[in-house]
Amino acid sequence: MSEGFAALPSLNALRVFEVVARHLNFRLAAEELGVTQAAVAQQIRGLEASLGLALFERQARGLALTDAGRAYSGSIRSALAMIDEATRLLRPEPSHLTVSVTPTFASKWLIPRLGAFAECHPDIDLRVLASDRLSHFHTDAVDIAMRYGRPPFGPGLESELLMEQRIVAVASPGLFAGQGAPITAEGLQGYLMLHDAHDFWPEFNAALFPQHVQMTAKHMRFNQTSLAIEAAINGQGIALANHAFVAGDIAAGRLQQVFDQALRHDKAFYLVWPRKARQAAVLGVVKDWLRQQAVDS
């Protein structure tokens, strides 16, 4: 072959030929390629003219490859596969990393930040597994998890404090229209207390109003913190939540912090990952990003 591949037919024509050779039908080939049947036929005519031989037999019931066309199609398919493989190696697929979080952590903290992560790290395909069920690193293919509690979290696992638990009471500003937020235990009695599965209200009330042994406010209970927060946003009552989960709603005016005091808890949110981690370099990038987000929140 001469230098520079001067005799090489159009690569676009060769691609069209490979598709037509597979389908033996101009219409199906056009659908796969996203062009018209006329454009497909024109490419095949041009390729046959440049080669000086027929690649297909036009029959009443469709197309058939000539002997030359059959031999040529096998070689062209192999050549295009080599070009495809070389191109994919040159532009590797993004690294995949799965992070396990609770639904509330996902919706109220992680998801609002994912756009910024994608912009900074377009080469990392971050997959979020949000579930109340405790995900397993091996069976669920999880690379890193956010877990609430106290370490250790299990054999073979590393952990690092990500975010302390700072519980605040929040409500819609409209809930207190005309009367102001409650500042006493008696004032709190007239509002609905919105509980989540953690049920921090008894501990919170005991810390704020230690002289009141029993509170008689009405209650509504949810299995997820995010649902209690949404109920508070909709003016149904007062919810307790980690400040990091409601900071955005407070800043946007959807919620207000009812009391200045916050309840500190000995349990916290930790990053947890296997000691023998897969994709250690990618995992390091994600951990660094999560740490910075926690600092900024």
Written description of the protein model:
It holds the Pfam family HTH_1. It comes from Pseudomonas putida. This protein has 10 helices and 11 strands. The protein starts with 10 loop residues before the first helix and ends with a helix.
Largest sheet: 9 strands, mixed
The tally of helices reads 10
Number of strands: 11
Which fold name is given in CATH as the topology of the largest domain? Answer: D-Maltodextrin-Binding Protein, domain 2
CATH architecture descriptor name of the largest domain: 3-Layer(aba) Sandwich
Derived structural class: alpha/beta
Low-confidence stretches: none
The string of secondary-structure elements, in order, is HHHEEHEHEEEHEHEHEHEEH
Q: What global shape is seen?
A: elongated
Organism: Pseudomonas putida
GO molecular function: DNA-binding transcription factor activity; sequence-specific DNA binding
Keywords: Activator, DNA-binding, Transcription, Transcription regulation
Family: Belongs to the LysR transcriptional regulatory family.
